[in-house]
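Q: Got a minute? One more chain.
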Amino acid sequence: MMAEHEIKNLFKVKQALLEGHFQLTSGRHSSAYIQCALVLQYPDVAEKLGEELVARVREENAGVPVRVNAVCAPAIGGIILGHVVARAFGARAIFAERDSGDGLLKLRRGFEIKPGETVLAVEDVITTGGSLKEIVQMVQSSGGRLMGVASVAERSATPVDFGTTKTVLLKLPLKDYLPQDCPLCKEGTPAIKPGSRVK
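A: Always. Here it is, folded:
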C-alpha cells in the first residue's frame, strides 16, 4: 500500500496542491486548493489511486466478504475516481448530477440503485462533505445497502462524519473561512473559483 507521504508527493508532482486565494465548492475561502483533476487526468495514476482505495476498503472490512454492486459518485469531480474504483471492484459505476431546478443531486441517464444493492459512495475530495452526504441519503432512500464512503483526500480541518465507514487516502486539513472572515478578502486579493460548482 502507498504511504500518505507518497500520495501527498504525487499531488505535488502533478501540481495538484495549489496556493493562492480560492472560493471552494462549499462557498468558503481558502489559501490552498486540491485539484484532483490534475492527478486523475493520468489514467495510470487514477487507476493506481482507485486500486489503493479498494485495498483500504477491503482492509477496513477484514474478515467480512466485500461485495460491491455499484459505486456512486457526484458529478463532475467524482466521476473518474468512481469509475476506476468500480472497475477494481468489478462493479457498476454510476454518478449523480445536480438538478438545475432544485440544485439537488439526482440519478439520471437511466442510472438506478436497486433495493438491496450494496453501494460505495465515492468523491475525489471531501471539504464539507455535502455532496457525499447527498449520495449517502440517495442510497438509503433507494433501499440500497450503503457500504461506506471513500475519497482520495479530505481537506476539512475537522473530519466529516457520514454516519458510516469512511476511507480516505490523504488527510490534509487546510484552513478555510467564511467569505466575511477571509483574511485574503480583507487584503483585497480576488478569489479564484477553480471548482465545478459554487453556491
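A: The chain is about 30% helix and 30% strand.
Q: Perfect, thanks.
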